[in-house]
Amino acid sequence: MARILEEWGGMIDVLEVVPGVGGIFDVHLDGELVFTKSMLGRYPEPDDVLPLLRERLTKT
Question: Largest Cα–Cα distance of the chain, in whole Å?
């Protein structure tokens, strides 16, 4: 989360953390699923998620 804010803190208007149950870890951007823990079978490292966010946030 800190790396996301560091990179896009001024560009992201709303960043919400929603607690899950049972080890769920999903990342959504504008209602679209960007990452889910089940993709890797483990919690992600920042470099697992950040490229996916960059790709979507820099689309023109």
Answer: 36
